[in-house]
Design brief:
This protein starts with a helix and ends with a helix. The chain has two domains: 66 residues; 92 residues, Arc Repressor Mutant, subunit A (Orthogonal Bundle), CATH 1.10.10.10. It has six helices and four strands, in the order αααβαββαβα. It has 187 residues and is mainly α.
Length: 187
């Protein structure tokens, strides 16, 4: 395998791990709502392990890219049976979700359940979302690609301090930095 094919394999692996994390999050929410706190705690521990594993895989992917930068010839991607990674630039980028997420959270009083936020984000972005955004994920037919992208945008926003890292699981909460960012970027 050439560098590009291995990189594609890493991307597929990371996307699959992200889908497992999302499915575990949904199971955890159901367990918590049904009062099955031991099960919810177990799922939280599993999600924490999966997030750590995903970070390791991303680190290995970066290491792979660094090792082979400029050393191997570019090669045309081979089509994979049953799965083909969406080409770059076809889906709406994560950055475009930032303002709609922040606006929705402000409208909802500063914090809300993920599904309420996603509903508001969809209303704000439905004219910008394209056919690729509206497709179901190959690995999780019950989830649209735009929902997955919005959730990863939220993850990045937490790392950047725009959303709280201390809010309960399933709750998205804007921070003071997020409010400042919104006021600076919306005219």
């Amino acid at each position: 395998m050439y560098k590009n094919e291995v990189n594609i394999a890493f991307e597929i692996l990371v996307e699959e791990i992200e889908n497992v994390i999302e499915n575990l999050n949904q199971e955890g929410q159901k367990a918590f709502k049904n009062g099955r706190y031991d099960k919810a705690k177990e799922i939280i521990e599993n999600v924490t392990q999966m997030i750590s594993f995903r970070e390791k895989v991303c680190g290995l992917q970066r290491e792979w890219k660094n090792i082979f930068t400029g050393r191997l010839p570019k090669k045309i991607r081979r089509k994979r049976k049953g799965y083909q990674k969406l080409k770059r630039g076809l889906r709406t980028p994560q950055d475009e979700y930032i303002i709609p997420i922040l606006q929705t959270l402000v409208e909802l009083g500063g914090k809300a359940e993920m599904y309420a936020v996603l509903k508001g984000v969809f209303e704000k972005m439905k004219d910008r979302l394209n056919q690729y955004d509206m497709q179901a994920l190959p690995s999780n037919p019950s989830q649209k690609r735009w929902e997955n992208t919005a959730q990863w945008s939220r993850n990045t926003m937490v790392k950047e301090g725009l959303l709280s890292s201390k809010s309960p699981r399933g709750i998205w909460e804007i921070t003071a930095a997020g409010r400042r960012f919104l006021s600076e970027h919306v005219v």
